[in-house]
């Protein structure tokens, strides 16, 4: 995607006061990080946190670093 399309959903989610979380998914083949945004209805904070927790358990990312961030 291009820079203009990045974050295009954040504004309306914030303006609507909806709970949301952005979590990392598999990186682009060239190494760029890609994320997924999870949005729930108003008051659904527990829903986004539960989905993010389950996704992280299934696809751990804590130890995954882009080559640019890793020093040898």
General description of the model:
- The longest helix is centred in the C-terminal third of the chain and has 14 residues, at 45-58.
- It contains 2 helices and 2 strands.
- Helix content is 29%, strand content 14%.
- With 72 residues, it is of the alpha+beta class.
- Strands 1-2 form a two-stranded antiparallel ribbon.
- It has helices at 10-16, 45-58, and strands spanning 20-24, 35-39.
- The relative contact order is 0.18.
Quick recap:
With 72 residues, this protein is an alpha+beta fold. It has helices spanning 10-16, 45-58, and strands at residues 20-24, 35-39.
Task: Estimate the global geometry from the Cα principal axes.
Answer: globular
Give the structural class. alpha+beta
Put simply, the count of helices is: 2
Output the helix-strand order. Answer: HEEH
Uncertain runs are none
Q: How far from one another are the termini?
A: 30 Å
Strand content: 5-15%
Sketch the major β-sheet.
Answer: 2 strands, antiparallel
Residue-averaged pLDDT: 82
Count all strands and give the number.
2
**Taking strands numbered 1, 2, ... along the chain, how are they ordered across the largest sheet?**
1-2
* Rg, nearest Å: 14 Å
Helical fraction equals 25-40%
């Amino acid at each position: 995607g291009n820079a203009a399309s990045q974050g295009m959903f954040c504004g309306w989610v914030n303006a609507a006061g909806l709970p949301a979380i952005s979590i990392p998914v598999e990186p682009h083949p060239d190494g760029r990080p890609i994320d997924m945004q999870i949005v729930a209805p108003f008051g659904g904070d527990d829903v986004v946190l539960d989905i993010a927790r389950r996704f992280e358990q299934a696809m751990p990312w804590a130890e995954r670093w882009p080559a640019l961030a890793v020093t040898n």
